[in-house]
Amino acid sequence: MVSIIHALALLTSALLLAPVIARVPLTALAGVLMVTAVRMNEGEAIRFMFSHRFKTGMVTFLITFLATITLDLTQAIVIGGIISAGIFINQVANLEVDIRTVDVERMRARGMDVKTNCKYIRVAYLTGPLFFAATNTFNEAFAHEEDVDFLILSMRAVPLIDLSGIEALHHLHETMAAQGKTLMLAAVHPKLMRMLERAGLDELIGKENFFWSADRVILVAEARHEHRKLQQITEIEMVPPVEMTAMPI
Fold this sequence. Notes:
It is a single chain. Helices cover 59% and strands 11% of the residues. By secondary structure, the protein is α/β, with parallel strands linked by helices. α8 (135-141) links the parallel β2 (121-127) and β3. The radius of gyration is 31 Å and the shape is elongated.
């Protein structure tokens, strides 16, 4: 609040007292700017950064420092902000996708009634934000998963998702649906779930394909697979046999 009042007071002074301010000697303004520049730099933070050799911080500081000397202050601030934003995006864009087969023995040891080997199921554990800088990693991770009928995305470690991440999920679902496969999601945070609901992905993927526990999803996927097999066997048995007719001699 204090900063807002300070900014409004400076703006009002610049608009109403411009003739008076114009009479202030440039040497006095130069001195004010020098003192401001010194106070803007946190000496202790700079010493800590250089003593511990934080390379990204050192590079950002030096480039911004040189830009301040060679250019004007506004341009230097913009350059420093862009560099900092680029470094931050590069650091947080590290999405990890760990695709695993189902450890049936471990699940049985935990008391879960797993009847098959679940080779047709894959569980992908996502770690990191799913946003525009990480969609390539996401898409490439599932480009060659062709021998699965059920793909489970465990999203417990995904803190946020943006429009590009939603589009990547949408594309993955459409690709799998076209191949007769099922995409299922587990442990989606409420904040992410609201984003998916706004995009209509909860209806598209199917609310019956959202679960809180990855273990629960595996059991449901196994039950659905067995049900499909039973349906296929029933359909085959219901097909009438082809009557063989004698060929004329």
